[in-house]
Amino acid sequence: MLKYLREHFQWTLISDFWKVNNKLNALAKQRCFFHLFVELLKVEAKNFSAKWKLFQARLTRLLKEAVAFGEKKTALRPELFRRKKDKLYFRLNWLCEIEYSDKDCKRLRKRLEKYRGELFTFWEYEGVSPYNNHAEQQIRKPVLWRKSCQQNRSDKGAEAQAILMSVFRTAELQGLNPVDYVEAIIKEQILLNHNWT
Predict the structure, then answer these.
(1) What pLDDT, in 10s, does the model give residues 108-160?
(2) What angle do CA 58, 41, 147 make, to 5 degrees?
(3) Per-residue DSSP letters for 129-181?
């Protein structure tokens, strides 16, 4: 599957910071802000240093302003859009270039530095969100179904379930009956394999 996606994925990928996503080729990539906000909240619960609080406040403000800017980008004149975008990129780059002594600041600065070219993609493409919640909601039904069926019993069963759930969800999103859709695919394959007309 990864090999296929590497070769054929030609859209904008909205994802978390999981390393496997780095291997995928895409038209463009957008990293999910929600995962950054969650990380900031997790660290806030255990790190009370003044350095962390300052870093957290600056990054939170930058991300919130970036989202607000993305929501009104179409209403801005091109030169105003470019100026505002340059200012926000300047602030992001500045956060990436500061040397921090706090370990959490260092870790998140490293992440920002690595993915800085994939944080504001949603400004450039229509229909791209700074959050991947939509994608996670799309797989919610198959995940719940798998849990209610006591998981998969074998690798082959897991692979079959993944394929069928993907096909069923695709059919649903296209407004088709999933069972009829799969039945039509099977009949078509039978006809092709037997060269029946």
Answers:
(1) 999 999 999 999 999 988 888 888 766 566 666 666 766 777 677 788 887 88
(2) 140
(3) -S--HHHHHHTHHHHHHHHHTT--SSHHHHHHHHHHHHHHHHHHHTT--HHHH
Residues 183 and 153 in one domain: yes
| Half-sphere exposure of residue 104: CA atoms within 13 angstroms, side-chain side | 20
In angstroms, the CA 29 to CA 158 distance is: 28
Domain stops at, among 89, 114, 136: 136
Host domain of residue 159: 148-194
Domain C-terminal end among 115, 136, 157? 136
**Are both 37 and 85 inside the same structural domain?**
yes
Residue 182 in domain: yes
Contact 7, 23 (CB under 8 A): no
pLDDT in tens, 30-68: 999 999 999 999 999 999 999 999 999 999 999 999 999
